[in-house]
Amino acid sequence: MALIVQKYGGTSVANPERIKAVVSRVAKYKRDGHDVVVVVSAMSGETNKLISLAEEMMPHPDNRELDVIVSSGEQVTSGLTALGLINEGFKAKSYAGHQIKIKTDKAYSKARILKIDDEKIHDDLKNDYVVVVAGFQGVDNDGNITTLGRGGSDTTAVALAAALKADECQIYTDVDGIYTTDPRVVADARKLKSITFEEMLELASLGSKVLQTRSVECAGKFKVKLRVLSSFETDGEGTIITFEEDEKMENPVISGIAFNRDEAEVNILGVPDTPGIAYQILGPVADANIDVDMIIQNIGQDGATDFTFTVHKRDLKKTLDILNNQVKDHIKAREILSDENIAKLSIVGVGMRSHAGVASKMFRTLSEEGINISTISTSEIKISIILEEKALDAAVKSLHKAFELDKNISI
Amino acid sequence: MALIVQKYGGTSVANPERIKAVVSRVAKYKRDGHDVVVVVSAMSGETNKLISLAEEMMPHPDNRELDVIVSSGEQVTSGLTALGLINEGFKAKSYAGHQIKIKTDKAYSKARILKIDDEKIHDDLKNDYVVVVAGFQGVDNDGNITTLGRGGSDTTAVALAAALKADECQIYTDVDGIYTTDPRVVADARKLKSITFEEMLELASLGSKVLQTRSVECAGKFKVKLRVLSSFETDGEGTIITFEEDEKMENPVISGIAFNRDEAEVNILGVPDTPGIAYQILGPVADANIDVDMIIQNIGQDGATDFTFTVHKRDLKKTLDILNNQVKDHIKAREILSDENIAKLSIVGVGMRSHAGVASKMFRTLSEEGINISTISTSEIKISIILEEKALDAAVKSLHKAFELDKNISI
Question: What domains are defined for chain B?
């Protein structure tokens, strides 16, 4: 008998019929003698509908009120899922974030979980209840409703699994696992049986869209066993996210290719190359709760350097406002540029550590395709580049082939 | 400078455009220097949509989960209204029931307010906020979400007005006041400038559908000045509900005619005429949280009597189940009958107290129309009858004319 936390995304709870399929799956686990905690997202389309309503009232909605509005979506699904379970003869109870005290900080729309009160849930599980939790939401110390940002239900599930010391956290989604790259771009993309946390972290943050980065970080930190599965298949093992590299029987040089069309590039040119300059640029951006992804600074010439970073396209205007009003004159920068027609591509793999020549193979492949690279940034298990958005598909296809990701072999 | 609680019903907040009209009205009061607390219902149609979803999951939804689901509607409207106010440059903050601790009992779907924590709201008002409260919902001592039943937002508004000691509680709806009867049935129906609490109570409970009975009871109990207005008119005084009869310049014999097609009649025949019999019949019905309206018992003959009461049509099946399974044999009743094709009609007026002959005039008028009365029940300021549903319209029209309700005169 195990304790399993299952998270179902928006397409898995899109309508009563789909929710009934979720109920059947939960029922199967219950009949097998397991305890189940279910975390649900809003019905697909619901969050966007609510955001549109909010934007009709106020073009850039106040974040406190936006959280009040959008968090209602998960509340509805949690109630509907509990009803479905009760209708099948199970004991079930739904909880919103404020009821099990998913305590967060005050960063509306991007809140971080601080603490979960697991007592109520443990009591319910002891009394044979299936506990259904509204994902994506929490409550701050003053009782204000907060949300965890897009994909936050994954984080709710992992944080609950950690707090409850669950045996496994299963993330049900509309894909059946983690692929070597997006199958819509590369037809040969292959499903991975396992992947390490480190690789998953790099892949998730780079846009694989299957799992929210924070949920993977959280799972890694609290050693939560995480599995990604399809809610549209009745069997299937999905992809398991492992702690240790040697759990993997095969260890290819790279595990996957991630890419992202959502970012915009910001270049600050002619910055005095003095200590503390990066903080002076990024501090005000971070204070505005804008997430910065890639950060590149090359060595300076003549006492000046260029500083580049990427932000989500929707944050670009706000970022430029901050840089132009609060930063530019202060740090005596020459010019601030930006480009929205870019894409980011990354190859990721723990095997990279022990294999030389991955970077040169990557750059040779792209060069043979005539694709230009504007920016490069690397970590131990990842190489990321920025390129023109229109060259992205060709780049992903050629690299997937060059690194033989379509073949299930180690190199 | 006054403190005004304004409540807007579902049609007044049906879409962002309508909510903007609400914002304009609130803005007017703020600019005039008043403090405003706004209570909102769900957008019209939303509650029914949510109930349908719940019924798709479970034909007779569990009440705890149903409350979780339907309470989301008001939460959305409260956030949207706050956004609209912020967008117009006001400080505004929304609150769900659990945030300002609208504490209720545990009667899901029919909860009663026990206590409101007014401190948070007073603090916000002091800091010049417009406070927007999600109507219809509360929270029990264990943090479970409860709802107050249909029309519960009126009760939220009145309870808030009482707790905050507001100067006036304005109920905005899609009608511009209280009428002598339903204008859809009688074209000559006339708007009343004022009405007493007693009359309003009788009219509301009898189906005028403008104000929830409990809200009027609560207003009367805590001496809240209550006004019913149209949210679709920019001026108009609406109808004020007064404490004292002599505040009214004119005092017609009857103020209005209410009617109701929603009830079903239950007859328990051949009941032993012994003490405690009414409790033995109605106790189990009340325990099932079924509201009973009219109760009629005539004097018995040969040690047996007949007992009649009415319930909402939707509760009829459940009521009959209870009577047949738990009550009938126990009290040795001969037979239990029911009729759904009935209507209730009531004439109401404080003037009735000092005028003889109201009842006889009523019965004469109906007799001249050839309308048969099956059951009669009276109070000091009201005479209620049950008649065949198909005779209802003719009955209302003839009585409206007979009591000269189309003319603004005292008799």
Answer: 3-249 (3.40.1160.10)
